[in-house]
Write a structure and sequence with these properties.
Blueprint lengths: L1 H18 L6 H15 L3 H14 L5 H12 L2 H30 L6 E7 L8 H13 L4 E6 L4 H10 L4 E7 L5 H7 L5 E6 L7 H7 L6 E5 L2 H8 L14 E6 L5 H16 L6 E4 L3 H9 L6 E3 L4 E4 L4 E6 L5 H8 L4
Parallel strand pairs: 1-2, 1-8, 2-3, 3-4, 5-6, 6-7
Antiparallel strand pairs: 8-9, 9-10
Helix pairs in contact: 1-2, 1-5, 2-3, 7-8, 10-11
């Protein structure tokens, strides 16, 4: 009951701040939201996050201030309210508290998010019933953020998952060419869903469609060489073909990418996050998600599920030989993610 009341209070506070956007300055509205966030959040991750936001607010020319203002102006408030509230409150606040309590009780590491590969570009698919089961088990353990990788996009299925798991923050990673007008129309009401297309052509064709619909989205590209890392270190490589001003950029290593390349890219992106040159926020998908694990759980406990249903742990991924069809999430965590 206390959690439900807190959620309602946060929702009211956020809606009031969004409603007052036209009556007061953007800075004042943003400061109000930060004050609400600080009041209702007391975990280590949120503390670090709000320190960074306060630093941003002190500098009117800070690129992240411009980023926040652009997001406020360009993204439908339904997505800002639902997805961001689920991420900030359900996942990083309420869910994180559940995770820490269970970890102390079970002496295991519990990931803050779960990566579920429904489909790759070709091959088998993980059944909807197993995805739902994983998400329901995860929510009971405090996991409220899910990366759904669906290269053969089934927009109707993704919409059902978003609707039936309304307290979760979902990020759908799919091929850019799959995000057609019909697919985007099906997903319009999935307000707890962020779309993250992967470039599979010369330019992001879905970007102008998503901007027109005022969607919350990020764009994904892979990297493979030290030359890619060097371009990022020099401040290049953030612009996307078809959407040079994309606010959120996701990077991931190409298949068989050398570990030293991953480390160099991660170092370059960390520097860009701390000292941004433009109003863009870069995310290295294999490293930044693990950093949040280390803040919430103090340990790296990356966990993903292949289309076959096999659980994979750590990074680079290690096969477990255990499958979601026959092994519960709790059993997997108890046996493979024990604290040292």
């Amino acid at each position: 009951m206390q959690n439900d009341v807190s959620r309602i209070m946060v929702e009211i506070a956020v809606r009031q701040a969004l409603k007052n956007r036209s009556k007061q300055s953007f800075r004042r509205s943003l400061r109000t939201l930060v004050e609400y966030g600080e009041h209702f959040s007391n975990g280590p991750f949120q503390s670090q996050f709000f320190v960074l936001v306060q630093q941003m607010l002190r500098d009117e020319n800070h690129p992240y201030y411009l980023l926040a203002e652009r997001a406020w102006a360009q993204v439908d408030k339904r997505y800002l309210e639902h997805f961001c509230l689920n991420m900030g409150y359900e996942s990083w606040t309420r869910g994180a508290a559940v995770i820490r309590a269970l970890e102390a009780k079970m002496n295991c590491n519990i990931p803050w998010c779960l990566v579920i590969e429904r489909t790759r570009p070709t091959g088998e698919s993980l059944a909807e019933e197993h995805i739902c089961s994983l998400m329901e088990q995860g929510m009971r353990m405090g996991i409220f953020t899910y990366f759904l990788v669906d290269c053969q996009l089934d927009a109707a299925l993704i919409r059902r998952l978003a609707s039936s798991h309304g307290a979760c923050a979902l990020i759908c990673i799919t091929l850019d060419s799959c995000l057609t007008e019909d697919a985007l129309t099906l997903l319009d009401d999935a307000t707890n869903l962020m779309l993250a297309p992967v470039l599979d052509g010369e330019t992001f064709l879905s970007a102008p469609r998503m901007r027109e619909r005022r969607r919350l989205y990020g764009l994904c590209t892979s990297y493979a060489s030290l030359a890619d890392a060097q371009r990022l270190a020099q401040g290049d490589g953030l612009a996307c073909p078809g959407d040079p001003d994309c606010m959120l950029r996701f990077f991931f290593p190409a298949e068989n990418c050398a570990p030293e390349v991953c480390n160099e890219v991660d170092t370059a992106l960390l520097r860009l996050k701390e000292h941004p040159l433009t109003a863009q926020f870069p995310v290295e998908l294999t490293q930044d998600l693990r950093r949040i694990d280390q803040i919430i759980s103090t340990d790296d406990c990356a966990l993903s599920v292949r289309p076959s249903g096999e659980f994979m742990i750590s990074w680079p991924e290690i096969p477990t030989g255990l499958y979601a069809q026959s092994t519960s999430l709790e059993e997997l965590i108890r046996t493979r993610l024990q604290k040292a």
